[in-house]
Amino acid sequence: MIIDTLDNLEKYSNLNPLFPKVVEYLKQIDLTSHPVGKEMIDGENLFVNYAIAKGKTKDEAKIESHNVMIDIQIPLSCSETMGYTPRKNLIETEYNAEKDITFYPGLAEKYITINPGEFVIFFPQDGHAPCVSDESEIVKVIFKVKA
Fold first, then answer.
1. Using an 8 Å Cβ cutoff, are 58 and 111 in contact?
2. What tens digit of pLDDT does each residue of 74-100 get?
3. What are phi and psi of 65, to 5 degrees?
4. By the 8 A CB rule, do 61 and 131 touch?
5. Which of the residues 53, 91, 103, 107 has the least number of beta carbons within 10 Å of its own beta carbon?
6. Where are the alpha helices (DSSP H) in the chain?
7. What is the DSSP letter of 136?
8. In this structure, what CATH number is given to the domain that contains residue 53?
9. Cα diameter, the chain
10. Cα 6–71–66 angle (5° rounding)?
């Protein structure tokens, strides 16, 4: 997991061959005025999802992980708290290959708050529980990057 400001995202470009495309995309677009929906950037290898997510309590937010894709999550409308547990500390449950997701029971070990102007990167080894917020809705952007 990596947390930083959007100004520093380019510093992580060497971690994945598709990260430079995310950086270039962000330089060319106004995230706050983009309509909700999915936009393909490099086929199924890299796409972005503009979403309005429901704010949840820690009890409602399920821990998840992905085998194939890396998440780069960027809150836009408000701060968002996300649970984090290293995947190695989670009890493996059924993996949904079609949706590239595994859900885990229980609460996350730690919680971090990400503010607008910041991002978090979750790799396949990172269990995460997004969308914890007192706000009823969270406008956010989620890049899905092939690991």
1. yes
2. 999 999 999 999 999 999 899 999 999
3. -150, 165
4. yes
5. 91
6. 19-28
7. S
8. 2.60.120.370
9. 41
10. 165
